Amino acid sequence: MRHVIALDVGGTGMKAALVGAAGELLHQARRPTGRERGPDAVVDGILDFAAELRAYGEQRFGGPASAVGVAVPGIVDEDLGVAAYAANLGWRDVPLRRLLTERLGDLPVALGHDVRTGGLAEGRIGAGKDADRFLFVPIGTGIAGAIGIDGRVEAGAHGFAGEIGHIVVRPGGTPCPCGQHGCLERFASAAAVSEAWAAACGDPAADAADCAKAVASGDPNAVRVWQDAVAALADGLVTALTLLDPRTLIIGGGLAEAGEVLFTPLRDAVRQRITFQKLPDIVPAALGDTAGCLGAGLLAWDLLDNTDGSEVTA
């Protein structure tokens, strides 16, 4: 059976899969990223993991993988196949495409940004599969975005398209590591909600999931924290939809696991803020934490399907 190798490299863990031509998961595996051992060890771990997947695919399906797709965090030069920078992995200018090609016997390799590859999967086979224009927004430790247009994801002129977590929604507000003050992710990310709820309830270990549970039970302090976060999120999203006019707005990441505790007030807040804009469908992501891996697999298939031989990126 024809298949490709897909790797989704995160700050703490790596997800991997063998992916069929229709985007189906034929095999899945996980292991720690091992960043505590240093950036070189992380790269070695990626190469070893990919080699093991190649061997498994040959044994299981009677032939080698056709290509490799890899999703990585940070700044990615998809054209050159270089992981340019990732603060949480400690690497700079890692030539992942070349290293993987050398290790795996000249298999073609597609490299993509983790959020954009997740958005690619959600757009093609997940919550946005029927939308010609979508915006995928995963809300976790930070907030990012992937802009989907006709089955592809826009990277931007310099690879920074979709960074809506750094839209300023509270001018002069909390400092952000990016250098601005009042960025969206400082008020509406899962990390920001966790911090605010821990302070409000007096439990340093409390997190955003605990806050969502307290909201559902009617705790007034939790409701206040949650409303503040939803208001900031709505402000940022309205700015994004004003610029991009998506047909579908897909919300993923840890905060989306709150379900209608998040989506009901968020839809209301966005609706109240729009004037001339068209209200998009606001829906939860469908693929969960497999989105990055599936997207990496789609990148690999795109690379094979590209008739002019140029590299497809996301």
Automatic annotation (TrEMBL):
Keywords, sorted A to Z: Kinase, Transferase
Family affiliation: Belongs to the ROK (NagC/XylR) family.
The protein's name in its UniProt record: Putative Sugar kinase
Single GO molecular function: kinase activity
InterPro entries: ATPase_NBD, ROK
Higher taxonomy: Bacteria, Bacillati, Actinomycetota, Actinomycetes, Kitasatosporales
Keyword ATP-binding tagged: no
Species in which this protein is naturally found: Streptomyces viridochromogenes Tue57
Keyword match Kinase: yes
